[in-house]
Amino acid sequence: MTASLNPDMFDAACPTTAMPFQIGDKWTVMVVLCLEDGPRRFNELRVPLRRVTSKVLAETLRSMERDGLINRFAYDENPPRVEYELTPLGRTLLDLVDAARSWCSENMDDLVAARAAFTARDPA
Hints:
Elements: H1 26-34, E1 40-41, H2 42-46, H3 54-66, E2 70-75, E3 81-86, H4 88-91, H5 93-121
Antiparallel strand pairs: 1-3, 2-3
């Protein structure tokens, strides 16, 4: 028999509650990859991230800035220019992203098969 889960395992005082959960968000990972080679402007990010709305991208960037993963630089120019860049903390995510990509690559056949089997038995 499996032991009961601790009801306080995610207590507000637990350090894991401060974890930036958005690192599992698909847009955050994609932004990290877009910024890997250096700073980018918002519209530059929109090119490969064309499936994300401007609102969601802006929210993602704000969350990443709040958690210290990126820096936002606003330049007093006409028209205004804003660039986003990974911080040293944000760059540490590159190792995690690489590990997740490797895992997906190694397990893609099993993932696709599991999804197909699930859809076949539960098409809703």
